[in-house]
Amino acid sequence: MFSSSNALLWRGLLALVIGIVTVSWPGITVGAFVVLFAVYAFMSAFTDGARAFASDRVGPVLGWLLLALLSLAAGVIALAWPGITALALTIWVAAWALTTGVMEIVLAFQRGETAGERALFLLTGLVSIVLAFVLFVRPDIGAVSLATVFGLFSMVYGVSAVFASFEERRRRSDTGRPEPVTA
Fold it and tell me: How confident is the model at residue 168 (pLDDT cuts 50, 70, 90)?
């Protein structure tokens, strides 16, 4: 029951369901992501508060308490203003994409790279910069677009994992011994 082929199958089916739901209702997905961010912020506030009282010096206590209060405020703001939170998270992803894209283009011109590696770095860098540009220009639709892309990725991953589980089952039955296949 807990074989790797079964795990791949269930993981693939779950990814397919998540992908279909995400593509069908991207707005709800963005809302769920904001709620998950708030839950993470509250958990971080709790653990930082616990760390504050585990220290035996005043400096770390104040630092951990300030971090706990910042995380608590972030969680409350996320729940009170989910639209602004989604916008801020989208802008954060845009900044990440821009930084990643610039770094990939810089890496393309490092010594020792083959022409194929340079082309790959340049292409992925340019795609990241274009994504950043689109998200910076239209962050309002960027969050929904990111949710849709995540859904499409989940569906492709799900199909891949399901097929990998079938391939692993076929190999196991052909050779008579377990040989894991990863998705």
Answer: confident
Whether the full predicted model's pTM is greater than 0.70, yes or no, is: no
Identify the CA nearest to 86 among candidates 99, 77, 96, 95: 77
What b/e sequence results for 106-139 when a residue is b if at least 16 CB atoms lie within 10 Å of its CB, and e otherwise?
ebbeeeeeeeeeeeebbebbeebbebbeebeeeb
Please give the Cα distance from 86 to 72 (Å, whole number).
Answer: 17
Going by the DSSP 8-state scheme, the letter that residue 1 receives in this structure is -
Which are the contacts of 73, defined by CB distance < 8 A and separation ≥ 6?
none
Q: Which two tokens stand for residue 64?
A: 């951990």
Residue range 53-108, pLDDT digits in tens: 876 666 678 888 999 999 999 999 999 999 888 888 889 888 988 998 899 898 88
| 3-state secondary structure (DSSP) of residue 109 | coil
Q: 168 is written with which tokens?
A: 């692993």
Query: Distance between CA atoms of 93 and 145, rounded to whole angstroms?
Result: 12
How far CA 181 is from CA of 16, 114, 126, 157, in Å, comes to 19, 30, 33, 14
Rounded CA separation 23/146 (Å): 10
